[in-house]
Amino acid sequence: MTDGRTTGSARAFELLEPLVQAATVRVHAPPGGYENPRSHRTGPTWGSGFFIAPGWVLTCAHVVGEGGAAVRLTGREVGITFSAGSITGTVTGRVECVLPERLEERRPARHALWDLPDLALVRVLAPVSHACVWLTDRSRPRFDEVAYFGCTEDLGTPEITGRTTRLRGTAGNGAAIRLGDDDEIEPGMSGGPVVDLARGEVVGVLKARRQTGGGGLAVSVVQLRTLPMAARGQVGLYRRIMQAHDLHHYDQHLSDLDNRRTWTDVHGELPPEEGDPYAGRGRLTPGERTTLYGLLAELPPPGSSEVVRALVEEARGEEPDPLPPAPLSWRDGLGLLHDPPGGTGEAAAMLRYATDVSVAEYREPATPGADEELWDWVRATAERLWRPLRRELGERHERGLAERERRRRASAGRAAQGPARRSGGLPPGASVLLEVWAHGWEDVYDWRVSVLAGPAHAGRVTPVDSGVRATLAGLPEALRAPLAEGFRRCDTHEAAALLEVAVAPALFGLAVDEWVVVGGVPLGVQRPVVLRHPAGPNPAAASPAAASPAAASPGGAGPGGAREHPADREGTDASARWARVQAGPLQDERADCIRGRPRSPAAEWLTGLPDNTVPVHCRAADQEPTLGSLHAVRDAGYGVVVTRRPPPDPGASCAPFHRGLREELADAGRAEVLPVRLQNLRGRAYGADPDAYWAAGTGLVWEDPARPLPDEEPLQGDL
Q: What is the Cα–Cα distance from 279 to 277, expressed in whole angstroms?
């Protein structure tokens, strides 16, 4: 141990070292692989890794990229050497996924620092018996003493060794952890685990060492939540691996086939933390915690991240930490319940949460009796706690059962009488909001990504991330990670969440639907994408539309000059237009052209059109007459408007676009299905369907009054 370590951390290292070493592996070329064909020798060490679930090794992407810069990472085979007791074995593994995904497209130069989170998941291709580490469930690490492990060759032979240091802070918006310079990190240790000595859990993956001395960086294991989301109706890789992780430790805890120490055993032997306010009855015992994780893993996963956050808020008594990454599993919810406010006790908060999970709606039916087994465990565990909590949990469970039965009956009634929301419409849950503002008169932009809670909690906004002074060309890269985090929070197993893009009309030509965030597929193909007018002051104060009579129509300036959306007030023409166009049938009208020639629509003409009209624009949104027309149709109360980014050829006719759109609107019948139908159209055009080529660049302005936007603009950068 390094000088200066406390007696408690020295004892913790002594207890944890055998468990971590048993799960840590050496990563190298596969036997008979790239560097040594027809040979069973393993070759030089590329780095380290560690088993996180049966058959799954976590390491760094740059480790599996060693020795083959031109080779695609995903699908590549690597060698894994591990120890099982006194036996050392070598197996072949296949890289199943790397993070971030763009590493497959843009590989760093040799000896350059790879982009965060720089992680790789390797599936072992042969069934082997091995140990697994215990992963933290906390979103943030504690800045305390840790141990790190990896492969070294101090004595000329590869071996797994451990050293200690202290966490010094975070980097990369929490994706990386800074390690102190108490000891040296050797190159072969990259990809090895970093262990919190006080709690006995792996919190990071060694990534890099400082070139000027000791210390370095590790990647937070919580970044595993950024694994690509599964297709609709499937369980994602992250949830499957964490389920296998928790069931492995649960089975180890219950087994009496051998007397080797488990992680749960060692957790019970770790020295107590000084000044712990929840010591004793305030926390679950290690055995109780392992059992709870196992019982939660036997349930189907939650339908979305927002389901987990809502239950955590109920159990914790306050909104959980909104910072990324989003909680995706029932286990992640427990990680948000540590150290609850008000001194109510961590154990009490976790038992409340487990009670609510036992009566929650799952993404598919649970195994018969699994939810009842969880409740039976909660009730038995509460016996050692105070009587008021036991009574509260019982009442909570009864209310939950009654509410679940009410939901099931309502669902059965809707199935018999027809769905409450007609098929083909938008999902009713949370959506992702992207706001972009021009930064004064400069050609740079501020942005913000948030989660809108949806019509059930209209107006509730949870921030995800924001930034300033980005160029239009730089926006896709700047927004890649924040948008991906927003989608993780809002997507459900049934549907991809809506993306709402709130920008000034001059930016309606921003090609957000063509951006690629995850999965290599454009956003507009993956999910519905709609445009919104920004909340707040009228951005068109100096535009021709602002000076026209249309500016005095419903939806004019509100108190203090703030613009109120026309459909926000009952009884106005705008609210009637919204309701009428949603029901259909739809009637299209060219707003900015007549037979291909530009025109500016008169305010009287716009206000006199039928309520089921959808104004259509085919010209560039940042140029007149289209810019003025977009403001005018908004002021006239239209909440559903079609726009288009013109094709590169200025001489191309807009007739195919108008003809194809008219057929699409007639076939749709009603506006409520247009966001999803436009997504399908983009998918057809992306798939090179010649019948859908006219839809390229089509945008939909969608001013849903049930989804109000936040009023304030973000703070701009320093002057």
A: 6
CB 165 within 8 A of CB 2: yes
Q: What is the DSSP secondary structure assignment for residue 708, as one 8-state letter?
A: P
Q: Where are the alpha helices (DSSP H) in 96-178?
A: none
Q: Is residue 559 predicted with pLDDT exceeding 70?
A: no
**Two tokens at 655?**
């007739």
- Indicate the SS3 state at residue 145: strand
Contacts of 399 (CB under 8 A, 6+ apart): none
Contact 661, 654 (CB under 8 A): no
- CB-facing half-sphere around the CA of 385: CA atoms within 13 A: 27
Task: At 174, give phi and psi (nearest 5°).
Answer: 90, -5
> Considering the chain, what percentage of its residues have pLDDT values greater than 70?
86
Question: Which contiguous run of DSSP H or E holds residue 464?
Answer: strand 461-470
> Which residues are paired to 502 by β-bridges?
435, 532
- pLDDT per residue over 17-41, tens digit each? 999 999 999 999 998 644 444 444 5
Q: What is the pLDDT of residue 459?
A: 81
- Average the pLDDT over 412-435 and give the result: 71
The conformational region for residue 595 under phi > 0 = left, psi -120 to 50 = alpha, else beta, is left
Note the pTM of the prediction, 2 decimals. Answer: 0.84
CA-based torsion, 20, 21, 25, 31: positive or negative: negative
Of residues 460, 436, 439, 459, the one with CA closest to residue 448 = 436
**Sign of the torsion angle spanned by Cα atoms 516, 517, 521, 524:** negative
Please state, in angstroms and rounded to a whole number, the distance separating the CA atoms of residues 347 and 350. 5
Q: What is the average pLDDT value for the chain, to the nearest integer?
A: 86
Q: Looking at this protein, which amino acid is placed at residue 302?
A: P
**C-alpha distances out from residue 570 to 102, 333, 473, 560, 577, Å:** 47, 40, 40, 21, 11
Question: Is the CB of residue 530 less than 8 Å from the CB of residue 501?
Answer: yes
Instruction: Label residue 235 by pLDDT band (50, 70, 90).
Output: low
Given a contact cutoff of 8 angstroms between Cβ atoms, the answer to whether 330 and 390 are in contact is no
pLDDT band at 340 (very low <50, low <70, confident <90, very high): confident
Nearest to 147 by CA among 82, 200, 220, 211: 200
pLDDT per residue as tens digits for the range 137-176: 998 888 889 999 999 987 778 899 999 999 988 988 889 9
Enumerate the H helices of 226-329 as residue ranges.
237-254, 263-269, 286-297, 305-316
- Summarised one tens digit per residue, pLDDT across range 614-642 is 999 999 999 999 999 999 999 999 999 99
Crossing angle of the two packed helices 387-417 and 370-381, in degrees rounded to 10:
160
Q: Is the peptide bond before 100 cis (omega within 30 degrees of 0)?
A: yes
Single-letter residue type at 615: P
Closest CA to 331 of 350, 314, 346, 345: 350
Whole-number pLDDT of residue 440: 73
DSSP state, 516?
B
Q: How many CB atoms are located within 10 Å of the residue 369 CB?
A: 10
Query: Given a cut of 90, is residue 365 above it in pLDDT?
Result: no
What are residue 561's phi and psi, to 5 degrees?
85, 0
Instruction: Report the distance separating Cα 132 and Cα 21, nearest Å.
Output: 10
pLDDT at 193: 98
Q: Determine the average pLDDT of the residues in 75-94.
A: 87
The burial class, CB within 10 Å (0-12 / 13-18 / 19+), for 542 is exposed
- Chain centroid to CA 428: how far? 19
Q: Read off the pLDDT of each residue in 256-268 and give the average, rounded to a whole number.
A: 91
How far CA 303 is from CA of 38, 67, 87, 488, in Å, comes to: 48, 41, 43, 11
> Mean pLDDT across the stretch 401-417?
75
